[in-house]
Each structure stands twice: as structure tokens, then as C-alpha cells.
Amino acid sequence: MPLPTTADEQSATQQIRDLIRGALPADSGLTPLPGFKMDLSANPGFRKVFFAARCECGTSALLSIEVAREKTIAEVEAALPSLVDRLVKQQQAFASMSCEMHTRMRLGPSPSRA
Ligand SMILES: [Zn+2]
To answer: Are the C-beta atoms of 63 and 30 separated by less than 8 Å?
Structure first.
């Protein structure tokens, strides 16, 4: 099987992200993040989509969902409720932390944005 091109990968990942975004509750407070450069070598078996959760204290958290690369878009659609559930649970975990903890997260080591 030929390796998918980066363009194919980006469009598949974007489709998955759009599906998840469309299935999220309107008040989820989650924002899809389009701007990640893909690192195909990091986890070649999975496609990763990123969402940001934000707290009113100004802290934001990066949430991600991994979908097995061999899954078709139809299979992703069928699994959508559980994918959304995973994302909402991550968001709830972030929302249930105190803002003191949020602030500590912000002060902690963060990846460089080079
Ligand atoms: Zn907070």
C-alpha cells in the first residue's frame, strides 16, 4: 500500500476534526485548532485532532483525540459519540480544576513555539 501523501493526511484529519466539531454540544466551549504542523513520524498509526479548552482565568488546555489511521471516514462517523465523549471528559477534567491549578499549569514548562 502506498504511503498517504501529506495533503491526503491533512484532508482526512480535517474531515475528522469537522465531524467532531459538528457533533460537539453547542456550549462545550471547545475550539478546534487547525494550526498544527503534522508530525507523521510521531505516532504513525494515528491521526490526531486538537481542540482547545479555555477557562475564564485565561488558561487554556490543549486536548486531543487520536483516531486509528486505518479507520475510514464512515467508521469515524459511526464512532463519533464515543470520540466526542472522550473530548468532553477531557474538557470536564480541565474545567473541574481550580484556577489555582490552572495558573500553576501556565507557569509550568511549556513547549516552545518556534
Ligand atoms: Zn481557571
So the answer is: yes
Q: Which residues pair with 64 in a beta bridge?
A: 50
CA 59 to ligand 1 centroid distance, Å? 6
Q: Is the pLDDT of residue 113 over 60?
A: no
pTM summary value: 0.77
Boundaries of every domain in the chain: 6-107
Q: How confident is the model at residue 106 (pLDDT cuts 50, 70, 90)?
A: confident
Distance from the alpha carbon of residue 56 to the mean position of ligand 1, in angstroms:
6
* Ligand 1 center–CA 47 separation, angstroms: 29
In the predicted model, what is the mean pLDDT of residues 85-113?
A: 86
CA atoms within 13 A on the CB side of 26: 0
Ligand 1 centroid–CA 108 distance in Å is 15
